[in-house]
Amino acid sequence: MKWMKRISIWIVFSLSLQCLGLFYIDKYILATDSKVASKKVVEDVSKAEEIVDITVPEKAETVLVSYDAKYLTYYEDENLKLVNCKDGKIKNINAEEGSKICFSEWLPDRNRILLVERKTGNESSNLVLYSYDVLKNEKVIVKELGWSGSKSEVENIQTSPLTGVIYIQVSNEGLSSSIYRIDRMGEINKKNTIPKLVSNIAVLRREDKLVYEGSVYNKIYVTNTDENIKDESISIEGVDRLTLIGAQNDNVYLAELKDDLVSKIYYGKTSEDTSTWKELDLQNPSKEKDLFVSADGKVYQNDELRGVVTEISSGIETSYEGELSQMYTKGIVSLVNNKVSFVPFK
Q: pTM of the entire structure?
């Protein structure tokens, strides 16, 4: 009977350990009445980073500002320069040996630049896409665009950080367009567009869809994730010509063209019937180039003669000097001679 006694002792000992373990988990690991000390954090506005106007060389070309206006880039003698807008310090973004940077574009929500390079003096060489992280000062190769033609030029790059997809629009000597799609895994494929020549493109934020516009007839299309299904056309009843002015928050913004001027804007999701889309009426007809869609989905109209940008829905005006260059998250970027100025929205 000694063996039964030993087994009983071991069972009691084992149960005791399990009970102690459960007690510890219940009281300490899964406890719901733990006291947590919290402290309200108040941002010290006086210590906020100040953005200053930046003077660029007279021969600077293609001045582009990051989404938060903390950095800007420009070309000088075909060399890409990076400027810190807080202190004005300048540094070079170098191309690979024997290559030159032929296109650059800031990402829409972070301080990172997409760069396209080509071997100098060799138009037949392939284009190569790189990513440059400003904060890390790190440049990495993304993909070689092996399908690009001998005289292909990059016209536009659209990215969707949430889906991890990059779309690259390449012009083939102005006769046709090629659209390349690069996914998060680095796989690349060429998208077949219905019109051979494409003008504007825009990518949705939460869906892997590209919206594009034909150059000749201003017809708008949206790609389908299934390669076997034909791209869908987007039309508005009663409207003959549409032009694509942007996409934000998964809304597509289209403008009605009459005599090459815009007087009405339609916006909504591609998954919805366009009869349910919202409309914006412009008090004064505008050129397409003077319409901008901000990161929060507001539409702005530029009046270059008055030097005023108007938020269409509210009518709030923001004045600037010089020439409107672009917009950043919180305001306007203008060029006054060779000075880059930042004007916050009112």
A: 0.82
